[in-house]
Amino acid sequence: MKLLDSLHRWTGGLIGLLLALLGLTGTILIHRDAWVMLPHAGDVQVQDTAVLAVTTQRLMQGLMQGPMQGDGPQPRAITYAGADFGLDRLAFADGAGAYVTQTGDPVARWDSQWQRPELWLSDLHQHLFAGDAGETVIGIAGLCGLFFVVSGSVLWWRTRRTFEWRLWPARMTRPAILRHHRDLGIVVAPLLALSLVTGAVLVFRPLSAVLLGPGAPQEIDRKLAAPKAQARALSPDLDWAEMIIAARARFPDAEVRSLSLPRGQSGLITLRMRGPGEWLPNGRTTVWFAADSGRIVATRDAADLPARVRGYNLLYPLHAAKVGGLAFRLVMSLSGLALSLLGTLAVWTFWFRRPVRRPVRPPVRRGS
After folding, report:
1. What is the per-residue pLDDT across 220-232, written as a single tens digit (0 to 9) for each?
2. How far is C-alpha 196 from the chain's CA centre?
3. H or E segment at 132?
4. Angstrom distance (rounded) from CA 103 to CA 63
5. Domains of the chain
6. Which one, of 318, 365, 353, lies nearest residue 171 by Cα?
């Protein structure tokens, strides 16, 4: 038990601030649709096929309405407005982007993610501004956080009779902070486990075998992979409107969620849709089009995916509180704030609030 206590304290002292940062940024991002305040951000979601077709044609041809009308760059991707955010988001090369209304009117543009706090916060939370390497570090931190939940629960059991519910330490002394740390940690342990497990599995897909059974990672990779297609150059004369219409004819009950141009050696344009019952914000129902002709090459209905793949698709909505409405967002906010508080105070007590050991003086002998 002493070894477990030492591992818990030392690991927390070394990585606590990183977990605190992830908890705080995650909490802020859960509510991003509420604090990104732009004109038309509160517009009702439009999913009329004709409007989507016309707007997509205009945006992909680089033609925008309003004061910025004229030939412009073609976006690399479009994320369409959702139920909680009424603007389409365009992504261009080199980190540039724009928000436009659901009919194509420009609202905001940026040349770098640093001009939009919701974008650089998202990059910080997911990649630590370091791409794949940062994502790996975050995944390792998530696994360490899961170790804290398990080891902390074991260590708390010894002191369970002194449990007291407090949101904040009774005093800013080391014993009071440690007691608060143990008691708050056991209260939020289930929420922390949910956040940390889902986050770690999203980073390290092979860990899905622990949740979904042996062979799950391979099945997920296989079922979610794009179809193999010959590399094709993107035609400048594609009928984008007809592509939207064709996809809607194939999946009439699905929301149109995102459109992206081919990446790497792929010759496929990807249209993601969200079918009925899907929790994933952008869905896994997908239509692929040939980049040179715009014809449908392949489709995938998320409802036909194996149970384990559908289970994997639930992880991100749970992690980011994309289901359950405001109530679940508040619950996951509690998880993030608790992680931030626990991590910060753990580092502070470990490095800066160590007890001062006074020298022991030998007892004074009195003469007889």
Report:
1. 999 999 998 888 8
2. 12
3. helix 131-156
4. 11
5. 42-120 (no CATH), 219-319 (3.10.450.40)
6. 353
For the beta carbon of residue 3, count every other beta carbon within 10 angstroms. Answer: 7
In a 3-state reduction of DSSP, which class is residue 176? helix
What count of other Cβ atoms lies within 10 Å of the Cβ of residue 161? 5
Name the more confident of 124 and 69: 124
73-77-79 Cα angle (round to 5)? 125
| Nearest C-alpha neighbor of 275 from the set 243, 305, 245 | 305
* CB crowding 317-345: b at 16 or more within 10 Å, else e: bbbbbbeeeeeebeebbebbbbbbbbbbb
Closest C-alpha among 104, 62, 50, 116 to residue 80: 104
Helix, strand and coil percent figures for the chain, each rounded to 5: 55, 10, 35
Integer Cα distance of 24 and 12 in angstroms: 17
Q: At what angle do helices 240-250 and 49-60 cross, to 10 degrees?
A: 150
The burial class, CB within 10 Å (0-12 / 13-18 / 19+), for 355 is exposed
| Amino acid letter, 23 | G
Q: Which residues, other chains included, contact 264 with Cβ-Cβ below 8 Å and sequence gap of 6+?
A: none
Up-side HSE of residue 283: CA atoms within 13 Å toward CB?
28
> Distance between CA atoms of 149 and 274, rounded to whole angstroms?
34
Q: What band does 357 get if pLDDT is binned at 50, 70 and 90?
A: low
pLDDT at 72: 60
DSSP 3-state assignment of 107? strand
Residues linked to residue 298 through DSSP beta bridges, in sequence order: 288
Rg of the chain, C-alpha, whole Å: 26
